[in-house]
Structures are given as structure tokens and as C-alpha cells.
Design the sequence.
């Protein structure tokens, strides 16, 4: 069973890799410039020159999807990475120090979690007047919480392990123990969480862009592309379907990968 | 006393390429307690797994990282005239609990850790067609040395110690009163005094309900207390089998003598 | 009068008390517990789970703070010194052998990290031999070792750190009798060859009888009986000790 799980992880991981590569090498793969408008090819159906067709301004949808992926994926990874760092740091402080610092930080986390994440994000992004930076802050404000909670609970359980007591009796300082024993043993569960967060963050970013609270046009981004093109969905459905399909595919791939890795770790015993 | 409840004939089983059970043959009569004794890794828990139809070891943490499942190459396991090997999981589930009971080494894993015990008792008893009698459960709890049964029924397994969970698993087995009870190292996590209480209760079950037991342990002192017959297992084979008193006083095998020597004694010989 | 008592004491705990509070409820894990461990002596502490015997070890090692009492190593007052400093005098071995080692580290690295001075492979090698282990195991991680092998490695690590006192917390209760017998043999060898002093906590009085010189019986945070192991086993005074011994007799061969 584990072998089958491994194969599934490899296949899904390869899919995720292909998506990442396609986006990173958008400049090489994209058949056209994503920002060049072509008045002669407005809302053109998919053809040899424009494999995914063109949009309202005659821009190549495929190229925009590829370049748009850059914006979405880069922002997502940056955001997940930052939340990972911040959350892990906060969680480890809570888990090792306890006391009032722990109580305060965990209450803040509880308050942030008591609202639906998207509602907080919309409110914050609205206050910050949109823009990619605003959207990232809006999502990041709640995203660190899952990392912090996970890091805290794992830190607390690792602290109970006999090897921590052994290290203390060997004279190791608290900082030394955190760096050599606690943090490295936290990485695996936190990494799994980061993988599952990629999908959610992508939905969040694209969602905010769709609502006009994310990237500012003409920058290509999947959510804003869907939003722009939905006005003429009956005339040029490809301009909506292409970014939508790619968004769904990417989210499914990353969520599935996260789930698989989590399952793999659980069956490890 | 002469009806055979369980008959195992020439059982051979593998994990991948490694043979873990070699030509194991055992029989168990009604109302009889057979102890299978051996070191960890001798295959005694695997044997229980085969009877339960898990085709997976009941315990033995070392096994989980081996990806392959247990493969039974030949042999038969006949319980009250029914062949157990090759039974479908749904059929096995029907057998387990009512006719075959299992007290695992780590019973916490077989409970829902966050659900109140009375709810779990009600559900399990109902699924086996037995009425929920709070008084009877509390009587059983008290009889195996669990104090404050009322409070215990209101608590959840994760709040309880390993020893308490162990005894609750025994209480389950006592209420369900199966024909055959499989015990996997049930006393090894318990205090000396508690272990004796549990042994006495199991002996009472045997006497009052003519229950047959297959009792797996590494401790020959415990085996002497409970067993009618003892089978010594080593490297997947039964190396010696006989009536408990005879085997313990006049072991014919070198390995049995070694096992006997390893048990700490209360008096010098 | 008895030969053990006259030996110089290496570790003394006097009137230790520890109360754990959880909201309004509290448990007195230790109430006025005193003990003295002689040089080269094996002192057993028996009692059921919850009797406070593990807390006693953690309190002595400084891993748990005490509410009242004094801890002395030889003539040096150690009360309140904290576990990092206590580690110079004593080391602890735990029940769960596998979790005594960081799962990511090889045995060698774990042992190396526990030493306070220069890395001394020859010393480790001789300890590995003494514990009857294969030196090849040093490059393995804890998951690749059996429970018994891990526990013997834990003994090696504790000795390598150079401490003269070992606190053993139920170190064989998760092992099968054969691995237990190996551990007992190692402890005996250590006693004969190195004059190690050991505080040996176990619920199994039969095992304590085999390993220890003297015994302390604990119940609900109190010491109910103390004496030479042979005296206590042959003629227990306290009713609880009697029950304990009766149960143990039924389980032994």
C-alpha cells in the first residue's frame, strides 16, 4: 500500500513540477507577448497562433495564463514561506516558553480564526485599497495561525520526549535544544502543512483578484483574467475557461499532493 | 472440555521474502487457556493477526516500516469448524467481538480517543446485540480493580492511563463474552498488583463462561499463572509445547530454559 | 552495622516534597521523601504507577522543581541547581528507550552530543563492548534498533557522559524478559567493574530483588518501607509491601 502511495506522490509531484516549470519558463514557452494587444484578433477562438484564443483586447490567452501563473504562484509561495517562518517562530516560542506570552499569542490566533479567513482577507484588502501587496497582507494576517498552532503543539509534544530530558541533563542550553532537536523535528509536519496551504492560498489570491482587490490590470493574474473575461463569456468562453481550468487544476494538484504526503507520513508510524 | 475451538495446522506466512511463521500447528479446546510465549519478534503477535484476519500484525511496531503485507502461503486456521483464512473482512468483523474477542497490547488504538466511554460501550454492545446495562458495566469495572466506575464511564480514553485503558478493553471482552479470547501482552503495561488482578479476572471468565483463551506473553511467570498449556515460540516456530506445569519444571529445549532463566525470581533456586 | 550503610553516601535527598496543582485539584506526588544512596550501591524504588517514584527521579535530577527539601551530592548542596548542572553528577535512563534518542540522529551522534569533553571513540568502543552491542549499530538511527538495543545504547550514552550516578526510570518495563535479562547483566557488570551507584525505579519487585541491595517502597508519594532487599522480601512490615510481594511471588517462577 505504501508503495502505491509513493507512486501516487511521485506522479502528483511530477504534475506539480510541470506546472511550476511551465510558469517559470513562461518567457520561453509562451507563443506571444501577454501584454501586446492585437486589434485584428479580438476574441479569436483557439487557433494555431493563439492556442487558447484571445481576449477582448486581442491578447493571447495562453501567454497570459502562463505569465499570470507567475504572479499567482510566486505570490503564493512567497506568502506560504513567510507564514511558515513567522508561524513556526511564534509556535515554537509559545510551545517552549508557555506562560503569558503563550496565552496572549494563542488568544490572538483564536480571535483571527473565529472569522472566516476570506471575510478577514476581503476586509483587510479593502482597507488597504487592493493591489497585490495588500492582498498578500490580507491573506497573511490569518495564514500564520495554522503554522503557529501546529508548531506549538508539536513543540509541546517533542518537549515531553525523553531525548529532550537527556539533552538537558547533558548540559545543552535551551537555544541549543531548540535548534538541534525541536526545530528539525518540526520541519516534516510543517512542510506537509505548507503543501496543503498552497492550494488554499492560491484560491485566496485569485479570489481577491477576481473581486478586484488583488492585482491591478493589465498585469496578468488568473483571478483577474476570469473576472475581466466573464463579461463576454457567451462570445469568448475560452477567455474564462482557460484561466479557470488552470486555476482548478493547480489547486487540485497541490491539495492532492499535500494530502498524499500527509497520508504517507501518517502511515510511517 | 473436549470440544476443539481453534485448530491451526501447518501455518506458513511471510513478510515479503522473510518467513515469519514456519509450520505452526496449535489446537485449543473449550475452556482452555493456551499461552504462546516468546521474545519480541518471535512471531507470536503475527500469529494473533492471522487469527483475526488482519493479515497484518496486531502489534510489533518494528513491522510497520516494512511495506509488504503478511502473506499466508499455506496452512489452515479453523475456528469452531469454520476456516478463517480467506474470509472476507465483512465476515471477519461479524465474528470478531461476539465470537472472537481481542485484547490488544495497546488498546488505546482501538478506542475513539475523544468519545466518552459510555457512548462507546453503548454503541459496541448494541452492534453485537447486547443491551447496555450501566450497573453491569460498573460491576465489571469494579471487579477488575477500576475505582470510581461512574466517573470512568464519563471520561474519554485519551484522558486515561495506558493501564486503565487496558483494563477497559478487558471489561469490553468480559461483557461481550466471546467463545475465544485473544490476549496480546495484556499484562506487560500493568503494575505487578494490577496484572495479578487482571489475571484473576481472566481466570474467572474462563471458569464461569468456559471461555477459551489464546494468551500471548513474553513473561513465563504470567504464563504459569494463567495457562493450562504453554507453547514456546522462537523465530516463527513452535519449539516446544506441553502442559504448563510440566513444561516449566522440565523444559526439554535449551531455548525454553533460557527464557525461564530470564524471568526475575522472588527466591533463589 | 550492615555493610552497605557504612559506605560513603554519594547522593542524598532529604524531606523532598512536590505538589502538582491543576486548577483546584492537587496531588502530592512526593511527601517528605528521604533517601541516601551509597557509593557503588544499587537502591531500588518500587511502587505502582502514580506512587511518585518517577517524580522522585525527576526531582532529584532537577527536571522537576521541588517545593521543599534538600538534595546533596556527597557533601555538596545541590538543591535548586537545575538539571544542566546536576547532569555533571548524574544521568537518567528512561522507560521509553526509542524516544530517548532524537529520531534524526545516528546513535554515534547522540552519544557524541551527550559528552562534555573531547570526542573519545575508544571510550565509546569500550562501553559498547561492555554493553554487548555491535559497534556497527552506532551508525544507525533509533528506529533501526530494537527496544533492548536502544536501551543498552542509552546506558552507554549515560556512562559516556562521565556521571557516577545513574537514575533508572522503569528502564526494562517496555522490554521483553530476554532483553530485560541482558540489561540486568550489564548493570551487574557495571557494579562489579566500575562501582557505579544506581537509583533503580521499577514496579517489579522481583526485578529489584535481582538488581538492588536496598529497597524503598513508595505509595501515594510516601515511603512506606525501607530496608535491605532480602529483609523486605522475606519479612515485609507494611501491608502494602506485603500485597506487592504476594503479587510478585505469584508471577515469578
Sequence:
Amino acid at each position: 500500500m505504501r508503495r502505491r502511495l509513493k507512486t501516487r506522490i511521485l506522479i502528483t509531484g511530477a504534475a506539480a513540477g510541470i506546472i511550476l516549470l511551465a510558469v517559470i519558463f513562461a518567457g520561453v514557452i509562451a507563443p506571444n507577448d501577454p501584454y501586446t494587444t492585437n486589434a485584428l484578433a479580438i476574441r479569436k477562438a483557439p487557433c494555431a497562433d493563439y492556442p487558447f484564443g484571445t481576449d477582448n483586447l486581442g491578447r493571447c490567452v495562453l501567454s497570459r495564463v502562463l505569465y499570470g501563473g507567475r504572479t499567482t504562484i510566486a505570490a503564493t509561495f512567497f506568502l506560504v514561506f513567510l507564514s511558515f517562518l513567522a508561524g513556526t517562530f511564534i509556535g515554537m516560542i509559545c510551545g517552549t516558553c508557555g506562560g503569558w506570552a503563550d496565552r496572549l499569542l494563542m488568544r490572538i490566533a483564536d480571535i483571527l480564526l473565529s472569522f472566516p479567513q476570506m471575510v478577514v482577507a476581503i476586509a483587510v484588502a479593502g482597507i488597504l485599497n487592493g493591489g497585490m501587496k495588500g492582498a498578500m497582507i490580507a491573506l497573511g494576517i490569518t495564514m500564520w495561525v495554522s503554522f503557529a498552532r501546529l508548531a506549538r503543539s508539536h513543540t509541546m509534544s517533542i518537549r515531553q520526549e525523553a531525548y529532550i530530558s537527556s539533552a538537558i541533563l547533558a548540559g545543552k542550553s535551551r537555544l541549543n535544544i531548540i535548534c538541534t532537536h525541536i526545530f528539525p523535528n518540526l520541519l516534516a509536519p510543517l512542510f506537509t502543512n505548507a503543501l496543503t496551504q498552497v492550494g488554499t492560498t492560491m484560491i485566496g489570491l485569485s479570489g481577491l483578484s477576481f473581486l478586484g482587490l488583488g492585482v491591478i490590470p493589465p498585469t496578468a493574474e488568473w483571478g483577474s483574467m476570469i473576472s475581466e473575461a466573464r463579461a463576454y463569456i457567451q462570445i469568448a468562453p475560452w477567455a474564462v475557461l482557460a484561466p479557470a481550468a488552470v486555476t482548478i487544476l493547480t489547486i487540485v494538484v497541490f491539495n492532492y499532493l499535500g494530502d498524499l504526503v500527509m497520508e504517507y507520513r501518517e502511515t510511517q508510524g | 472440555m473436549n470440544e476443539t475451538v481453534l485448530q491451526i495446522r501447518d501455518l506458513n506466512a511471510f513478510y515479503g521474502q522473510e518467513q515469519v511463521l514456519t509450520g505452526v500447528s496449535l489446537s485449543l479446546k473449550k475452556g482452555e487457556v493456551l499461552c504462546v510465549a516468546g521474545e519480541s519478534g518471535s512471531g507470536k503477535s503475527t500469529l494473533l493477526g492471522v487469527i483475526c484476519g488482519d493479515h497484518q500484525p496486531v502489534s510489533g511496531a518494528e513491522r510497520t516500516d516494512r511495506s509488504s503485507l503478511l502473506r499466508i502461503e499455506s496452512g489452515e486456521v479453523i475456528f469452531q469448524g469454520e476456516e478463517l483464512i480467506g474470509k472476507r473482512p465483512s465476515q471477519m468483523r461479524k465474528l470478531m467481538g461476539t465470537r472472537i474477542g481481542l485484547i490488544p497490547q495497546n488498546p488505546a488504538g482501538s478506542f475513539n480517543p475523544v468519545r466518552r466511554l459510555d457512548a462507546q460501550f453503548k454503541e459496541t454492545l448494541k452492534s453485537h446485540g447486547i443491551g447496555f446495562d450501566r450497573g453491569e458495566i460498573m460491576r465489571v469495572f469494579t471487579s477488575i480493580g477500576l475505582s470510581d466506575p461512574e466517573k470512568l464511564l464519563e471520561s474519554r480514553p485519551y484522558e486515561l492511563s495506558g493501564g486503565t485503558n487496558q483494563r477497559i478493553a478487558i471489561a469490553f471482552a468480559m461483557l461481550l463474552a466471546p467463545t475465544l479470547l485473544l490476549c496480546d501482552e495484556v499484562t506487560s503495561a500493568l503494575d505487578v498488583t494490577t496484572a495479578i488482578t487482571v489475571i484473576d479476572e481472566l481466570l474467572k471468565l474462563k471458569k464461569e463462561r468456559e471461555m477459551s483463551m489464546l494468551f500471548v506473553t513474553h513473561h513465563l511467570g504470567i504464563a504459569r499463572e494463567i495457562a493450562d498449556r504453554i507453547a514456546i515460540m522462537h523465530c516463527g516456530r513452535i519449539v516446544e509445547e506441553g502442559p504448563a506445569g510440566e513444561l516449566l519444571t522440565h523444559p526439554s529445549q535449551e531455548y525454553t530454559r533460557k527464557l525461564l532463566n530470564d524471568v526475575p525470581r522472588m527466591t533463589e533456586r | 552495622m550492615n555493610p552497605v550503610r557504612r559506605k560513603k553516601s554519594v547522593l542524598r535527598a532529604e524531606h523532598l516534597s512536590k505538589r502538582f496543582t491543576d486548577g483546584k485539584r492537587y496531588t502530592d506526588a512526593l511527601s517528605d521523601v528521604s533517601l541516601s544512596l551509597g557509593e557503588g550501591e544499587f537502591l531500588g524504588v518500587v511502587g505502582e504507577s502514580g506512587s511518585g517514584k518517577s517524580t522522585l527521579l525527576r526531582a532529584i535530577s532537577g527536571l522537576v522543581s521541588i517545593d521543599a527539601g534538600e538534595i546533596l551530592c556527597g557533601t555538596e548542596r545541590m538543591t535548586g541547581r537545575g538539571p544542566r548542572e546536576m547532569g555533571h553528577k548524574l544521568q537518567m535512563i528512561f522507560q521509553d528507550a526509542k524516544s530517548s534518542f532524537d529520531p534524526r540522529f545516528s546513535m554515534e551522534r547522540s552519544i557524541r552530543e551527550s559528552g562534555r569533553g573531547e570526542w573519545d571513540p575508544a571510550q565509546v568502543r569500550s562501553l559498547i563492548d561492555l554493553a554487548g552491542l555491535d559497534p556497527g549499530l552506532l551508525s544507525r538511527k533509533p528506529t533501526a534498533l530494537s527496544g533492548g538495543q536502544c536501551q543498552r545504547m542509552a546506558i552507554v550514552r549515560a556512562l559516556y557522559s562521565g556521571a557516577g550516578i545513574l537514575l533508572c526510570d522503569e528502564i526494562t518495563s517496555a522490554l521483553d524478559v530476554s532483553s530485560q535479562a541482558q540489561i540486568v547483566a550489564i548493570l551487574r557488570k557495571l557494579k562489579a567493574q566500575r562501582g557505579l551507584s544506581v537509583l533503580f525505579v521499577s514496579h517489579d519487585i522481583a526485578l529489584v530483588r535481582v538488581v538492588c541491595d536496598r529497597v524503598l517502597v513508595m505509595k501515594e508519594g510516601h515511603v512506606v518501607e525501607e530496608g535491605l532487599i532480602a529483609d523486605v522480601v522475606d519479612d515485609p512490615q507494611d501491608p502494602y509491601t506485603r500485597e506487592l510481594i504476594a503479587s510478585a511471588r505469584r508471577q515469578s517462577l
